[in-house]
Every structure is written in structure tokens, then in C-alpha cells.
Design goal:
- The protein is of the alpha/beta class.
- It has 2 domains: 2-147 and 289-332, Rossmann fold; 153-285, Rossmann fold (3-Layer(aba) Sandwich), CATH 3.40.50.
- It contains 13 helices and 12 strands.
- It has helices at 16-31, 44-49, 91-101, 113-124, 149-170, 185-193, 208-220, 237-240, 244-252, 259-268, 291-309, 329-332, 344-351, and strands at residues 2-8, 35-40, 52-54, 106-111, 129-135, 147-148, 173-178, 198-200, 226-231, 275-278, 315-320, 323-328.
- The strands form 2 sheets. Strands 1, 2, 3, 4, 5, 6, 11 and 12 form an 8-stranded mixed beta sheet that branches. The chain has a 4-stranded parallel beta sheet with strand order 8-9-7-10, sandwiched between helices.
- The longest helix has 22 residues, at 149-170.
- The model has no long low-confidence stretch (mean pLDDT 98).
- The structure holds 6-O-phosphono-beta-D-fructofuranose.
- Residues 11, 75, 112, 135-137, 179-181, 232, 285 line the site of 6-O-phosphono-beta-D-fructofuranose.
- 6-O-phosphono-beta-D-fructofuranose binds at residues 11, 75, 112, 135-137, 179-181, 232, 285.
């Protein structure tokens, strides 16, 4: 009997259930009745606490199009994994013990960057681990694409599309804040797809004077409105020049709920036009996965099942140049895939006059 545990960890995204279904169906197809799949509740927290259940085949039916995760999820910071806190729980020991208790041959982990650090830790501790890259941020190193990203990009693009009509009617400046954590993949995609006039990414620090100049020029050319797609992680040129500690302190003292509101204030000092801020937030992570993500999740899921069948543990399944390949967890853990500032997408955007505020 083959025994496989599955958990989803970190922020949810579209396509998690499709990926869970992919790996489960791939295993059932190969092993028939000779496989047991354990669903671990709420990510690593369930593995630490021993909250899991034996899943039935039927649990994996009808979930392809379902958003969120049927297993639940939670954020368990990697830096705390080896720390014994007030509850006196040795988290790593507990996770290993529960893995043994379930008699698992492999643990399948679906997650983003933080999740992969812990996946690698467990692999180094001797557990058989296989992982899949999920996140709307698309910032997992080693894969060209994470599932969730394309669905979120569609939603963010829709937001910008809708904002266009009201921005035009009122002749206003709109700042649309796009998720993406410390990278700008989602903002770049939605910004280009939605026809934003200015795109601000964490990878390209901005200068508020330059943005104001771009908006003034648009007005001179007869465009009465401007749309700015701003990554939640965007930073100014002054901030980029700060050390890590100084930056943290400056952000802790920031008087605004997020970067978009601060930018609205900065532009308000420079321009007389009305400015509005739109923050779609977690809306971008919700709902059904788009067809691309359903297919990618299914491909990742079945590739993960194959790694388990072939006992090729210690790997993440990744998309590279259109093919699904294994990438060692130790190579993935602790790295961030940021947008290369000289990539052709940014160049194409610049070529049609989109400003990056630099
Ligand atoms: O990592 C996915 C993500 O949605 C980021 O884009 C965002 O910064 C973060 O999660 C939000 O985290 P939470 O769901 O914990 O508020």
C-alpha cells in the first residue's frame, strides 16, 4: 500500500483544488486501490498538530473549478519552524512524528516561497517530499509559471478595464493597487493587459516627479484621465537607496494604509486633478481558476504523481520552456524570482509609451 499525504500552505490561490485533484487522480490511475491519500488540514499547522484524514476518491471529484482549497491553509512562518514557542511544541519533531504515524511514503506540498523553505527543511530531515508551485505572485524560483497567477492577472485586468470607463467619465487619476508581494509580475501583466498609463513595480523604484510629468503630458495631449497600475510592493527611489533596517523603520512609520495611498498623496502635492485609489486586494485570489490554470495545475499534479511513482523525491515540479520538469527543493528554497528589469515585456510596454515612473 502506498501512502501519500497532501497539504496546501500559505496564501490560497486559484487552481489549488485542480492541482490536488491532478495528483490524486494520477495516483489512483496508477495504483488503483493500492494507495491511501491523507488530507492534512490547514497546511503545516495540521501536520504539526496531527490534524489529517484519510481521503476518499469522491473527495477529489467536482473540485476542478472550485476556488480556494478543500484542505484549508495557514501561514506558518519558516523562521519560526525551529523555534520552541510558549506552547512548548517542537514543530519539526511533531511534523516528522505525524508523517511516521500516517506511515507516509511521501508528503505532497502545494505552496509558494515560504512553503518551499519548510518543504526543503523536511526533505533535509529525511522525509520524502514532492512539491508544486502555487501563488498569484509568480515569484517561485525555478518555474516559469506558478498556478494561480494567470487567474489573478485576469481579475486584476478586469478591475483596470472597469476603472477605465469611470476614469474617463470623470477625468480622474486612478491608482489601482495590485497584489504580488515583493515582485511585480502580476502588476506588469495586468498593467499591460489593462492598458495602464503608468506601471510601478518593486523592481523599478519610482520618482513621483517623473510620474506627475507623465500625467501632465497626457493631459496636454488631450487625455483627461490616467490609470496607474501599482504593485503593493512598489518603492520610491529614496527608499531604494535605504538600508534594510532604515527602510523597515520608514515603512513602519508610514502614515498611509498602503503604498497607493501614499502615492496619491505625493501626486496630490504635484497635480490639481482628482485622484482615486482602488485596492482589489484578496478579490484577486478568489473564485474559479481560469482554463490556463486548470490545465497547468492538472499538469503539475500528474507530474507530481509521477515523481512519487518513480520515487523521485526532494523535487518541485516546474514549468520550463513549456515542459514540466523536476527542480530540486534545495535549489528552490530561499530564492525569489523577481521581474528582470530588462525583460522584453517591460521593453514592449516602454515601446508603447507606458511609464515605469523611473
Ligand atoms: O502571496 C500571495 C499574496 O496574495 C500576496 O500577493 C500578498 O502580499 C499576500 O499574499 C497577502 O497575504 P494574506 O493573505 O496573508 O493577507
Amino acid at each position: 500500500m502506498k501512502r501519500v499525504g497532501i497539504l496546501t500552505s500559505g496564501g490560497d490561490c486559484q487552481g489549488l483544488n485542480a492541482a490536488i485533484r491532478g495528483v490524486a487522480k494520477g495516483l489512483y490511475e496508477y495504483y488503483g486501490k493500492d494507495v491511501e491519500i491523507y488530507g492534512i488540514q490547514d497546511g503545516y499547522r495540521g501536520l504539526i498538530r496531527g490534524e489529517y484524514k484519510l481521503m476518499q476518491r469522491s473527495d477529489f471529484s467536482g473540485i476542478l473549478t472550485l476556488g480556494g482549497t478543500i484542505l484549508g491553509t495557514s501561514r506558518q512562518p519558516f523562521k519560526m519552524m525551529r523555534q520552541i514557542e510558549e506552547d512548548n511544541v517542537d514543530k519539526v519533531r511533531n511534523m516528522k512524528d505525524h508523517y511516521k504515524k500516517m506511515k507516509l511514503d511521501c508528503l505532497v506540498v502545494l505552496g509558494g516561497n515560504g512553503t518551499h523553505k519548510t518543504a526543503n527543511l523536511l526533505s533535509e530531515e529525511g522525509l520524502n517530499v514532492v512539491s508544486m508551485p502555487k501563488t498569484i505572485d509568480n515569484d517561485v524560483w525555478g518555474t516559469d509559471m506558478t498556478f494561480g497567477f494567470t487567474s489573478a492577472a485576469e481579475i486584476a485586468t478586469n478591475v483596470i478595464d472597469c476603472i477605465h470607463t469611470t476614469a474617463t467619465s470623470h477625468g480622474r487619476i486612478f491608482i489601482v493597487e495590485v497584489m504580488g508581494h515583493k515582485v511585480g509580475w502580476l502588476t506588469l501583466e495586468a498593467g499591460i493587459a489593462g492598458g495602464a498609463d503608468v506601471i510601478l513595480l518593486p523592481e523599478i523604484p519610482y520618482d513621483a516627479d517623473k510620474i506627475a510629468k507623465v500625467i501632465r503630458r497626457r493631459n496636454e495631449y488631450g487625455s483627461c484621465f490616467s490609470i496607474l497600475a501599482v504593485a503593493e510592493g512598489a518603492i520610491s527611489k529614496q527608499e531604494a537607496a535605504m538600508g534594510k533596517k532604515e527602510f523597515k523603520a520608514a515603512r513602519a512609520n508610514m502614515q498611509f494604509p498602503s503604498i497607493s495611498y501614499r502615492l496619491a498623496h505625493e501626486l496630490g502635492d504635484r497635480l490639481s486633478q482628482e485622484i482615486r485609489v482602488v485596492v482589489p486586494g484578496h478579490f484577486q485570489r478568489g473564485g474559479s481558476p481560469c482554463p490556463y490554470d486548470r490545465v497547468l495545475s492538472t499538469r503539475f499534479g500528474t507530474a507530481a504523481a509521477k515523481l512519487i511513482i518513480n520515487k523521485n523525491y526532494g523535487n518541485m515540479v516546474a514549468l520550463q520552456k513549456g515542459e514540466i520538469v523536476p527542480v530540486p527543493l534545495k535549489d528552490v528554497a530561499g530564492k525569489l524570482k523577481a521581474v528582470p528589469v530588462d525583460c522584453s515585456k517591460i521593453q514592449a510596454a516602454r515601446d508603447i509609451g507606458i511609464s515605469f515612473g523611473d
